[in-house]
Amino acid sequence: MAYCKKVLDFRKLTLKEKEKVRIDSVKRVIRKKESPEKVAEEYGYNKRNIYRWINTYKKQGYKGLQSKKPTGRKKDLTATEIRKLKKYLSKDPRQLKFHFGLWTIKMVQKMIKDRFGKEYGISGVHNLLTSIGYSYQKPLLRATQRNPEAIAKWKEEEYPKIKKEAREEKRNIYFSDESGFQSIHNKVKTWGKKGERPIVEHTGRRFSKGVISALTPQGKLRFMQYDGGMNSELFIKFLERLQAGEEKRITLIVDGLPVHKSKKVKEYIKGTDGNIKMYFLPGYSPELNPDELVWSMAKRYVSGRLVKTKDELEKYISSFMHSLQKRKSTVEKLFHHPDVAYINGL
Description:
The termini are far apart. This protein has twelve helices and five strands. It has 346 residues and is an alpha/beta fold. The relative contact order is 0.08. The chain is elongated, with a radius of gyration of 29 Å.
């Protein structure tokens, strides 16, 4: 059989064909003193493979390069075992005596073997998890100080009372939060050639902008940018702007940031004669605030831009926020997210 440069696809070769490629490649390097990189390039596979095969040859000879019959695994998990597997996966791995707190393929593989006596390969575990509705995800971080009882009480008792009061007093309910945007986003990624890390030029200067926004379940969105940290004066300024043009009185829901509870803010709200009522979310539970979803979208948008000046950063933030303001249906859909579905009783 003939192999052409960059045409070889190991997935489509038989075991014998794979064995021949391994042995022929190593022979060309060992006997003919050819360059491993050149051999790998001609066959079209990754050069890391040939170095691995050479190491195997040095330890085991050509016998180590021969194809081995795949060791068949035992019968697939039964429906009952899959239900148990899901139950195990819902736990912190450390509860099952693992040392790592996040599930990995190898940990699931070991758990299946230990708990059910059945062996799966890495790809087999991956396919199994996919088939039962699991995917590889970035976990949400939850503060250990959070109080599940307080969160449940907020969803089941406190917020329904606030909602009822707002309806009776003809108020608009706004959820508000602050966030900061950086000129250099450390988590930006791009596709590039392997072994050649892409370079993105920037000024090297770091600057930031603060933004506060508020949104309603009906799709209204208001925002204000500011410099430095949030303080009482800036928060009051935002409250003044929030009331401007608002036909109804306002119920404002925020987190427990000290600024929100400052003496100046309390006095200001008292001076509105009930035009603003403010309530506080349970501590350490930002996921209850739909404004967090706005920041997630906004930061994805801004992080993909090369920002050279503070004015550009402000421009990109304004561009996204103004665009989102015009898409009321998109803002409304944020309230369908599982974490905040309680707001509309979903």
